[in-house]
Design brief:
Helix Hairpins; two-stranded antiparallel sheet
Length: 275
């Protein structure tokens, strides 16, 4: 009876996982572990992601190339494999699927699989850069190299870049080649107009026609100014480290803080220069 009871209360972790379970465990380690091998894998994935984002930025200039569709479908296959692997690496797939970055990645995959039918939404692929910065894989190398203090400025720069390229794609898709004086005749014109509008320079040599063009310009200016203010705040505001207080949970503190400024609890923030 005693042996039977011990067998029933055996540690579930001692039970060897099945083949599918081993695959999920391996992927979980590769995507979330800090082991040297996992970090090399995460760095390789990050490099591939950055190459894919570079393709998204250059898409308007490459669309007429004969090899465009082959590259497009190849990137779709890579993104699909990455999504499947990340799904298997998650502990709760349905919860993972409800996350906004994952939803955007699935939408981006749809634009890659149907580039002809969803050509007008292709400019939203640059949102892949935003979803990438919402993963630990992107920031872990920065923290390992003692650059974690620059996370907020880097995030602000990325948000601004994503906004610029999304707006550029929208302007190019919605207003290009309409034959209006001062209109958009190419992708570079759209980028030029976006930067001039966001910075409120307003040269006036390129404008968006009609009432909708004026409304779009107003929205671009207001949003662009907000992102510039956010960028300035993140650069000039004193840098803080992410270290949750054990008592009240406040997550941001000065690098040399000894006590939590919210509850006074004694902190033990690791010294970034201690190796």
């Amino acid at each position: 009876m005693m042996a039977t009871k011990k067998e029933k209360t055996a540690d579930p972790a001692a039970i060897k996982p099945t083949g599918f379970g081993r695959i999920r465990s391996t992927l979980r380690l590769l995507y979330h572990s800090s082991a040297p091998g996992a970090q090399r894998f995460q760095f390789a994935v990050l490099v591939v992601d950055l190459v894919i984002i570079a393709f998204f930025i250059a898409t308007p200039l490459l669309r007429d190339n004969d090899a465009f569709l082959w590259i497009d479908y190849s990137i779709a296959a890579l993104l699909a494999l990455d999504l499947i692997a990340r799904a298997l690496a998650s502990t709760d797939i349905w919860r993972w699927l409800r996350q906004m970055p994952v939803i955007l990645d699935i939408f981006i995959l749809a634009t890659l699989l149907a580039p002809i039918w969803l050509v007008n939404l292709g400019f939203l692929r640059i949102l892949r850069l935003w979803t990438l910065t919402r993963t630990a894989t992107f920031w872990r190398p920065l923290r390992k190299r003692e650059l974690g203090l620059y996370q907020e400025p880097v995030q602000a720069v990325i948000n601004l870049l994503v906004f610029l390229f999304v707006v550029t794609g929208f302007v190019y898709t919605a207003f290009a080649n309409r034959g209006d004086d001062g209109g958009i005749s190419g992708y570079i014109d759209a980028l030029y107009f976006t930067v001039a509008t966001v910075t409120t320079t307003g040269f006036g040599d390129i404008t968006l026609p009609g009432t909708w063009g004026k409304l779009a310009s107003i929205i671009i200016m207001i949003t662009g100014i907000s992102l510039f203010v956010r960028l300035a705040q993140s650069i000039f505001r004193p840098a803080k480290v992410h270290f949750p207080c054990p008592q009240c949970g406040l997550s941001k503190h000065e690098p040399d803080a000894v006590h939590c400024k919210a509850c006074g609890h004694i902190l033990n923030i690791p010294d970034s220069g201690s190796g």
